[in-house]
TrEMBL record:
Lineage: Bacteria, Pseudomonadati, Planctomycetota, Planctomycetia, Pirellulales
MF (Gene Ontology): ATP binding; ATP hydrolysis activity
InterPro entries: AAA+_ATPase, ABC_transporter-like_ATP-bd, ABC_transporter-like_CS, P-loop_NTPase
Annotated Gene3D superfamilies: P-loop containing nucleotide triphosphate hydrolases
Span of domain ABC transporter: 6-241
UniProt organism field: Bremerella volcania
Presence of keyword ATP-binding: yes
Protein name (Swiss-Prot/TrEMBL): Putative ABC transporter ATP-binding protein YxlF
Assigned protein family: Belongs to the ABC transporter superfamily.
Length: 317
């Protein structure tokens, strides 16, 4: 049996609107991806990329136009599969008059839990999300970060195997974001798989093991964060000490970016080395000239760079 918790294959979704449904929006145009059990998976994409549509199709809240897939081993939209999912929708709003405690009972009821079951689980969950002292307070007095944490607590009420969070840190300040990250890591350690849809690239980079970049309804890139941020041409940064003339002589065969030097004995230079042989050749040439290699590191692009490259390429096409 596959150990993927989500598998979707060639998913398409076309919304039809307007008079006689003449206007069509192709929100998903052949999405294929797999999410391994136990990982924190990030879905990234610009506005309108199709992220929320993908989540809704996975949950069966929106009907797909074509394609197939399964969620927790059940066909997409199947009720049994959905029962093991905790979901925090984008822009969710709690009824303003409810207290935190009452909101938990209300949402627990929507997940099919009895009041007794909710009362049993509620103290532990509110404690986990740092809201144990706020249960009696009306939700409209909560900050945005507190509301999101309460949203996560309600999504956890029925011990889901998979937690799907649509923009969980939207509008949350840096301290609140760090709290959410810590909570997600703890949940992962306890065996929960987390599917996170976020605009916050740095959040994804800090918390996710794997990610997909979605643009214009298609997966443009999929893999571990390391794979996504790997630079196509390996760039190695050297910090060198010794005679500047000798350094430049030693590396004259290599492709380098402009040198930065202190004008005396120290230099920082970035070398493009296609493979390990070329890197070894640089190191050998430097050492033959008695140059000290103080630092050597492989440069990576940030997730933001990777994202912008992919998204701008998609816009140009
Ligand atoms: N119910 C709907 N009817 C018609 N078009 C829709 C509907 N829901 C979404 N769309 C369109 O489908 C496309 C994808 O929207 P979706 O909300 O899935 O994107 P998103 O990546 O989640 O965007 P955002 O980051 O802005 O929330 C957009 O062009 C959007 O306008």
């Amino acid at each position: 049996m596959s150990d993927s918790i989500i598998e979707v294959h060639d998913l398409h979704k076309t919304y039809r609107e307007g008079l006689f449904a003449r206007k069509q929006v192709n929100a998903l145009r052949g999405v294929t991806l797999e999410v391994p059990r136990g990982c924190i998976f990030g879905l990234l994409g610009p506005n309108g990329a199709g992220k929320t549509t993908l989540i809704k199709v996975m949950l069966g809240l929106v009907k797909r136009s074509s394609g197939s897939g399964n969620l927790l081993g059940r066909p997409l939209g199947d009720r049994m599969g959905r029962m093991k999912v905790g979901y925090l929708p984008e822009h969710h709003r709690f009824p303003r008059h409810l207290t935190g405690n009452a909101a938990m009972v209300y949402y627990g009821g929507l997940s099919g839990l009895s009041r007794r079951e909710v009362l049993h689980k509620r103290p532990e969950l509110l404690e986990r999300v740092g809201l144990s002292k706020w249960g009696q307070t009306p939700v409209h007095k909560y900050s945005k970060g507190m509301q999101q944490r309460l949203g996560i607590a309600q999504a956890l009420l029925h011990n889901p195997e998979l937690l799907i969070l649509d923009e969980p840190t939207d509008g949350v300040d840096p301290v609140g974001r760090a709290d959410v990250r810590k909570l997600l890591k703890e949940l992962q350690q306890e065996g929960t798989t987390i599917f996170l849809n976020s605009h916050q690239l740095q959040e994804i980079e800090l918390v996710c093991d794997q990610a997909a970049i979605l643009a214009a309804g298609r997966v443009q890139k999929l893999g571990t964060i390391e794979e996504i941020t790997k630079h196509p041409n390996a760039r190695i940064e050297f910090v060198l000490q010794g005679s500047l003339d000798d350094m430049q002589y030693a590396l004259n065969f290599a492709e380098t970016e402009p040198w930065q030097t202190d004008g005396d004995h120290l230099a920082r230079v970035i070398v493009s080395a296609e493979d390990q042989n070329e890197l070894n050749r640089c190191v050998d040439a430097l050492r033959q000239k008695n140059i000290d290699i103080l630092e050597m590191r492989r440069l990576r692009t940030t997730l933001e760079d990777a994202f912008l490259n992919i998204v701008s390429a998609e816009t140009v096409e």
